Please model this.
Amino acid sequence: MSTPRARLAILASGGGSNLQAILDHLRSLGAASPAEVVLVISDRAAAGALDRARAAGIAAVHLPASASHTLAALLEAQDITHIALAGYLRLVPAEVITAFAGRIVNIHPALLPAFGGPGMYGRHVHEAVLASGARVSGATAHFVDTRYDEGAIIAQSPVPVHADDTPATLAARVLAAEHQLYPRVVAALCAGTLSLGSDGTVRGAPPVS
Ligand code: GAR
Model:
């Protein structure tokens, strides 16, 4: 008997290119896909991620970040089994993280533990990397806990920082790395080949390329 597909919710605040990469990757797996994206939630009504969800025929919900009980109830009502944050810029309520411990992941546009934490999102991350003089940046996939960007690191994909980079050119290079890395992490999590041990260690991280 085959294992039932994971019912995946994506939380996103922005354009949703990572959401799109996940949808495209799962679709490319066809009948072997371990997950179905059944719900996309955004704290921003104008988020492109909601448009992408609607275009794909997926339930798309605008939920202000203050509605934490509503978020938990919505996830339960839709029988969500796993959550992927994809450019979600809010702290996920503790009750949701507790309920989904080991089944909720995030993608961050830098090599954690550097350039993470409160205020480190989107363009701010790339500005900080350039200001630091770092020669390498990249994407980090990690499990989510109640603190910003501090959950166990699953996998990282480095990219070079060029001398003439602007925050926008660096962001584009990192985003391309995210699109390669994150769908594979999400698929592995949903397939059960990636997990978070009770001792906090990551087991079975997928290969980066
Ligand atoms: C991505 O670069 C993602 O890593 C970043 O927001 C962008 C969203 O792009 N997330 C964070 O900065 C979280 N700390 P997208 O909406 O096109 O996927």
Q: What stands out?
A: The domain at 6-195 is CATH 3.40.50.170 (Rossmann fold). Residues 12, 14-18, 49, 86-87, 107-109, 121-122, 125, 175, 178 surround glycinamide ribonucleotide (CB under 6 Å). The mean pLDDT is 94.
